[in-house]
Write a structure and sequence with these properties.
- Two copies of one chain form a homodimer.
- Chain A is 14% helix and 28% strand.
- Chain A is α+β, with helices and mostly antiparallel strands.
- Chain A is globular and about 40 Å long.
- Chain A starts with a strand and ends with a strand.
- In chain A, 51% of the residues are buried.
- Chains A and B meet through helix 1 and helix 2 of A and helix 1 and helix 2 of B.
């Protein structure tokens, strides 16, 4: 029986995923962006890299079968199933405190960069910089496909190495990156059997 | 009288550029990709960042007037003139030794990442990672515009801070990123008067 684990709105989690296992990220309410990263468990200096993956794929959005590679161009995660509209952005930096300041925030604001820092600190993942995440269910600049994952839509990735996967339910509530009238929502994930 | 400085084929250079000054990069022979980076002179941990610039611009190619921002979302360089077809790629990681290995190279191969490391080492620019460059005159994955800068075409950027600008004439000769039958060519640059 699979274990469905919730990530609360504006929050994040880090998950160990052995090579060959797969993780499904569930857009519980639909319309919620999830920032996703992956680091090699045996050397977290190596991480899934969007600029390297775009060269390898010659695409700016992953499709079923796409193998996302690391900053050393090794396979990290493969996209194996997707019941969302498939609108995932490989381009955009994670939201961070500077982003919210530029949007007029004068108070601290939850953000995906800090969400990543928080959940990987205990796992000894070094973060001299924040890698560009795979922004699940985010348009980015290409507004061609339908706008939102439907409630319950999921995206499934298989680990090509032992990985630490980090997920952040994007706290953006100032611009309409997330659906639901800019209200961040919880998401969930599960590790697939076998 | 402006000073035209050549960068030999497969080679690189780093240039100090004071705020308000502008640099023009000349595609001497046309069809040659130039990888471009910029670091703040007073704190080279802050650098021009493509994933942050794409959020700021909501574009995947810069246009005249585009302000490219840093990893802290501060203005770094503005694109002020462009006599090329304007095909510049903000997406792709710089070529590196792993890229050439993946293309079948068994011997070391000149690459833009090493070219950057070499020219900024003396300037005390820390490089815990290679920022994604602005790939001047590279298609990337969007093959809409005419393919090549013509001989003598130039792209001009104004510094919004005191910067160290690094340029690498891409040594790629295995896949047709550069024109001229995969033969890397020299390029040149000059600092504009006043």
């Amino acid at each position: 029986m699979r274990d469905l684990i919730e990530i609360q709105a504006r929050c994040s989690d880090a998950i160990s995923l052995a090579a060959g296992r797969s993780i499904s990220i569930v857009n519980t309410h639909g319309g919620q962006v999830v920032d996703m990263w992956a680091f090699r468990a045996d050397d977290p200096n190596e991480h899934m890299s969007m600029p390297h993956s775009m060269v390898a794929l010659d695409r700016i959005k992953p499709a079923i079968g796409s193998v996302l590679v690391s900053n050393l161009r090794n396979p990290m995660l493969s996209l194996v199933a997707d019941t969302s509209p498939g609108v995932h952005c490989m381009l955009f930096a994670a939201c961070d405190s500077a982003r919210y300041r530029s949007l007029g925030c004068t108070e601290p604001h939850a953000n995906c960069a800090d969400n990543l820092r928080r959940v990987v600190a205990a796992l000894k993942v070094p973060l001299p910089y924040i890698p560009t995440p795979l922004n699940l269910d985010e348009h980015g600049v290409m507004r061609i496909d339908p706008p939102e994952a439907q409630p319950g839509a999921s995206v499934t990735f298989r680990a090509e190495h032992d990985c630490i996967v980090a997920l952040s339910a994007c706290p953006q509530d100032l611009v309409p990156v997330n659906g639901h009238g800019c209200t961040p929502k919880p998401v969930a994930y599960f590790i697939n059997e076998s």
